[in-house]
Amino acid sequence: MKAKTFILTILFFCFINVSLAQKREYYRHLQYNHVSPYIKLKGTYPLDAVTADNTSHYVFKYNQNNQLIEVINNHYFTERKHPLASIGVYKMKISYDKNIETRLFFNKYDEAITNDREVYKEVYHIDKNGNYSNLSFYDHDDTPMESNWGISQYKWSKHGRMIIEERFNLKNKPKNISTYFEFGITGMIFNKNGIPKATYNLNDNLDVVENSMGIASYHDIYDKYGNHITYSYHDRDDKLTLNSIDFAIVRKIYDSIGNYIKQEHYDTNNQLVRQRNIANNQYVISSPIATQQDSLEIKRISLGYLESLKDLRPALMNEVMNDSLNKVTVGYSRELRKEVVTSIPKFRMIENAKNWNKSNTKFPPKPNNTITILDIYHRIATVKLYSDNWVEYLHLIKLDGRWSIVNLLWQHRDVSRYPY
Questions:
Q1: Using 50, 70 and 90 to split pLDDT, how confident is the model at 176?
Q2: What is the rounded distance in angstroms from the CA atom of residue 123 to the CA atom of residue 130?
Q3: Neighbours of 46 (CB within 10 A)
Q4: Which of 117, 142, 201, 250 could lock 183 by a disulfide, CB 3.0 to 4.6 Å apart?
Q5: Are 215 and 243 in contact (CB under 8 A)?
Q6: Which of 181, 167, 175 is nearest to 245 (CA)?
C-alpha cells in the first residue's frame, strides 16, 4: 500500500512538473512596437486553445520558472509588419543562462533561419534589476553580424526617468534608430506597465535636440487593450511638428478583436490630412462579376495574338502581350532524348509576328478559332483558345486599365505529334 502511494505521489509531481513546463498562452496579436528591442514581447487579446485553433494567433510557451521559452507564429494577418513588431519567423526559441537571454529563429522544419532583422541569433544581457542592458547579433557561425539596419549592438542605461539607447555597427560606429529615421542617441520614457510613452533624440550630453527635420521626439499612446492607437512628432519645445511626409499625428483604428483596420493622418492643427483603410484578411472585399466590357476585351486580346501571327502584325502582338510574357510549350530534345519544356519571351513573339507566316501556309484561309473564358477575377483571367492547329491556355492580367497576355501554355491539337 505504501509503495502504491509512493508511486502515485511520484506520478502526481511528474504531472505537475510537465504541466508547468508546458504552460501555454494564446494571443491574437503581438503588442505593436516601433520603438526598441528593449521592450519585452507581449501578447494582446488572449484566446483559449479551442478558439486559437480556428483563427490567426501566437502561442507563448513558458518553463516552470514562468519564463517565456518559445513563441510560435500562427499569425496570418496581412498588414505590413514593422521589424520590431514581428518575430518574422515561424518559431522563436528562448533560453536563459544566468544574466543572458538567447533567442534563436526557426522555420516549420526546425531549421535555423534569420528573423525580420535578418540575423540568426540575438543575445541579450540582463542587469540585476531584470532589465536589458545589451543586445548583440550573430550569424549562423556565431560570428558578430549587423542587422538589415546596419546595427550590430544595442546598449541601454538608466538616466533619470529615461532609458538611454545607443546603437553601433561592427566597427563600433554609432547608428541611427533605423535606416529611415534620423535619431541618434535616444531616451525612452515608459509608463509603470513598461509601455513606451515618448522617445527623444539626444546629443552626446544627453540633451534633447532636434534632427534635421526639426523633430526632437515622438510620442506613443496605447489603449487599455494594448493597441497602439496614436503616435505624434514634436519639436524640442514639445510642440507638434510635421515629419518627412507631412503629417504630425497618426491615429490608428482597430476592430473589436484588435485587428488594425484604418489609419488617419493629421497636421499640427489636428486637422485631417488623409486617411486609408488597412487591408487585411479579416475583412475581404470580393470582386464583383466581370463586366461585359472586360469579357469582350479579353476575347479581343486573346484572338489578337493569333491574328498578329496570321496577318504579320507585330504592332498588334506588342499590344496584346505583356512585357513579362512567358510562352511555354512541350518539345523534344534529341540531345537529352526526352521531352522538355521550352519558353520564349515577348520580343521573340514580336519577331515571329513579322515573318513566321510570310509564306501564308500556317493558317487556313478562314481560321476556326474558339475562345472560352474559364474564369475572370477582378484583374486576372484564364482563357482556353481552341484553333485549327493548337490548343492553348492563356493567363491575362489587367494593368493600368489594359488587359494583356502574361502566360501562355500550348500544344498541337493533333496529339499524334507527341510520343504518347
A1: very high
A2: 15
A3: 13
A4: 201
A5: yes
A6: 181
- Decide the pairing of beta strands 380-386 and 370-377: antiparallel
| Whole-number CA gyration radius for the chain | 30
If you search the block for the grid coordinates 483559449, which residue do you land on? 48
Structure confidence at residue 15 (pLDDT) = 46
Residue 149 reports pLDDT greater than 70 = yes
HEC sequence for 84-152 = CCCCCCCEEEEEEECCEEEEEEECCCCCECCCCCCCCEEEEEECCCCCEEEEEEECCCCCECCCCCCCC
Task: Give the model confidence (pLDDT) of 59-89 as tens digits.
Answer: 999 999 999 999 999 988 665 677 888 888 9
| Helix or strand run (H / E) with residue 355 | helix 346-355
Per-residue confidence (pLDDT) for residue 5, from 0 to 100: 52
